[in-house]
Design goal:
Blueprint: H1 8-20, H2 29-32, E1 36-40, E2 44-45, E3 51-52, E4 56-60, E5 65-72, H3 79-86, H4 90-95, E6 107-114, H5 118-127, E7 134-138, E8 141-146, H6 152-157, E9 162-163, H7 182-198, E10 203-205, H8 206-213, H9 222-241, E11 248-250, H10 252-258, E12 262-265, H11 277-296
Parallel strand pairs: 5-6, 6-7
Antiparallel strand pairs: 1-4, 2-3, 4-5, 7-8, 8-9, 10-12, 11-12
């Protein structure tokens, strides 16, 4: 699979998002059928009050159809999770997951398995008594491994295989997730810090920072947003305590005013005299690289500010 440092979850999330949005180089199956990405990691309760949390919800008013996507990188399935998915109704999608009514008229739960592990996933779904479509993801595409979609065009599109250039998967939609390693999250955070510096912002406010660093923030479930904020806060805390301490300073007094975790941006290279800026940007780049390298090597320990 492309992009070895990305998890299966991130690859699939960015792939399906890209296919819905008609990204150049990816198949147009989903965009041609009118599918749009609606929610990322949005949890809702079905009629039985059981929690359901798809990795991604895509829907098409054109096809009167919604797909609840679930990624499986291993061989096992959670039968209780499948049961909760099976309890989802049209009304649940419309009233609790806020899917457009037309798209909520019919739906499928699509389980995406990884390469040779898909057979075991398909068997687990079958033995649990469900007929959810199971798709096999490998190095050159996605194939329907078991069961059909309610929309015939989708079934045909994945049979025998939808060929995909995995190198064309966009990485910008979801650059990290709540399970990502700190060094990967740090790469996105550092890019955003540099943007704030170039805009000569005097401070960094966590809520606004995460919303702009994570492009799909406003279509992400509230519970998952909390996990993302915690992940980013941990990375920012360690950056300020370590290699970027010259540039970021935690401010308890500022938090008392902003009511969110706040860091002061100091020693901004963008505010240096013109002749000094190249040297200072280079120093920031080197400090950032040192942080990422250290995190890749697994050395750490952080203390949260109060």
């Amino acid at each position: 699979m492309a992009s070895a440092y990305l998890s299966f979850n991130l690859r699939m999330l960015n792939l399906v998002l890209g296919m819905c949005r008609g990204v150049k180089g990816l198949p147009t199956l989903l965009s041609d059928l009118g599918y749009q990405d609606l929610w990322v990691e949005r949890s809702f309760r079905n009629t039985s009050e059981d929690e359901v949390k798809p990795e991604l919800i895509v829907g098409s008013e054109q096809q009167h159809h919604t797909v609840l996507c679930e990624w499986k990188s291993g061989t096992s399935v959670d039968t209780d999770q499948l049961r909760r998915y099976a309890g989802v109704t049209q009304e649940d999608l419309r009233d609790r997951a806020f899917v457009p009514p037309t798209a909520a008229e019919q739906h499928d739960v699509a389980v995406f398995g990884l390469e040779e592990k898909t057979s075991a996933v398909a068997l687990g779904v079958s033995e649990a008594g469900y007929s959810f479509p199971v798709l096999r993801v490998d190095r050159d595409g996605i194939a329907l491994a078991a069961n059909d979609f309610k929309v015939a065009e989708l079934t045909r599109g994945f049979c025998p295989k939808l060929h995909i250039d995995m190198d064309a998967i966009p990485l910008a939609y979801v650059p990290f997730d709540a399970e990502s390693l700190d060094w990967l999250v740090a790469q996105t955070c550092i890019q955003r810090i540099v943007e704030l510096m170039r805009d000569k912002e005097p401070r960094l406010l966590l809520d606004d920072f995460v919303a702009k660093a994570y492009p799909l923030w406003h279509s992400t479930g509230e519970d998952y947003r909390g996990r993302l904020k915690a992940k980013v806060q941990a990375v920012l805390t360690e950056l300020a305590q370590g290699e970027l301490g010259h540039y970021l300073r935690w401010s308890k007094p500022a938090k008392a005013v902003t009511h969110v975790p706040t860091w002061i941006i100091q020693n901004n290279p963008a505010s240096a005299p013109p002749k000094e800026r190249p040297r200072q940007w280079k120093a920031l780049t080197e400090a950032s690289r040192n942080f990422v390298t250290r995190k890749q090597q697994g050395r750490l320990r952080l203390t949260f500010p109060e």
